Amino acid sequence: MRSKKIIYTIIALALFNSACKKALDLEQQGVYTSDNYFRNEKDAVNAVSGIYSLLEEEDYIGHAETTFDTPSDDYWRSGDHGEDEGIENLTYDASNAAIRYPWKWRYEEINRSTNCIINIPKITAISEAVKNRSMGEAYFLRAFGYWRLMVIHGDVPIITDEDYSKQNFNVPKSSIEEVRKQIEADLLKAVDLLPESYGSADRGRVSKGTALGLLTKLYMYWEKLPQAIATGQKVIANSNYALAANYRDNFTRANESSTELLFSIQAVQNVVQNDFTIYYIPRAWGGYGFSQPLQGLSNEFEANDPRKQATLLTVGDQVDLGDGNGLTTFTADLSATGFAFKKYAVFNTAAAGGGVDHTFAVPLMRSADIYLLVAEALIRTQGAGAGDAIINQIRRRASTALPPVVGAGMKELIHERRVELAGEDQRHQDLMRWDKAKIIDIAAIYNLSVSKAPIDQNKTITFVRPKNYYFPIPQVEIDKSKGVLVQNPNF
């Protein structure tokens, strides 16, 4: 975890005397710390932007966090990372590198957010609107850091404002109940402080709807279903968070102005690279070819559902790579499963030479996710059919050719979440939520033939309850704590 003290240092360039090979001493020209940095509105905005910048980190949201959906029956890991194989097959332990990578970035997000929460209120040269917005952003982003920690690990350390001020980062774990309360408290503050929407100059900033959306998800994972309904309905009822008219537009450059994107990774071609998409694109097309969809996911789509074509590339499909050679055909040698995610195969067709489009905003949370969580909560509290109206909004947006559901229960809801959110890193956590509630049998699902890649057909996946509901704390963090951190049970 990161100390608050040095934000950045500006240093004069040193010249070397090549004859005597003696370096001149560096002269420090200026130092900013948390105590003297936060002077005006620009400093507040820049400090908050520094929190957002972490989302592009390859070992954080930029890619590493997607690894935790690898055990799901939506896609095969592919690639040459042995640590991903351990996650997918549920044979990982606390030394697994994929478990270690994002830990520090989650706490970096939490610490940068706390730095803003402590210091922005001290600024006097700032408008009330920007101060409130900046504080709301910091509260949301801190909550998001804890959210990822809670979803992946369960019990984790909470760094209080006092801990941060005293630079006391070696603290014991808090219970998952305490972590949920911490997330809830931050999100409720964010809801109060954030604006409902932004102008184009502030595209990508989190809004009131973003905070309400994550709060809805928190309540679902907390099994507080009535609260999830009440909170999620505020998203559904607000036109600022309306579903995009076209499902496909959520996964193209058209999503830049989409009301449906509650939270996304923003990037700019050749300036701030977004590594997320490159992992999904076949190697021959400039990507890494990871996360290849499975037959079971393909089978899940109804015959007349256009979301399948928007989500998956199958053998024979054609794509414009922007390389000036017209359409390129997706062939069997590009994937070990026969599929790739078209959702993330976005190419820069406007530039000479084409290549992967890094300006594409990658959705991290869409309104459709919140719609379906509310529908689920209605079904589970009021019975089959209670979520029909909401599910049918999602289906009508996909295609008017899809028949409406009538009397939909959890089977229909589970289907709708899978096809709507395929490849968006929800499936494994969804299945674990439903397994805990005894709605499905996750162990049986993961051993279906269509849930595995062709080369893994002889493998048996053993899901151990409750061990595999959460991942272990990285062993390196346990070691560094010198006894303060205690490993999760069964590891």
Automatic annotation (TrEMBL):
Record domain RagB/SusD: where: 239-490
Keyword Nucleotidyltransferase: no
Subcellular location: Cell outer membrane
Keyword Signal on entry: yes
Signal peptide from the UniProt entry: 1-23
Protein known as: RagB/SusD family nutrient uptake outer membrane protein
Start and end residues of each SusD-like N-terminal domain: 90-220
Keywords, comma-separated and alphabetical: Cell outer membrane, Membrane, Signal
Similarity annotation: Belongs to the SusD family.
Main location class: membrane
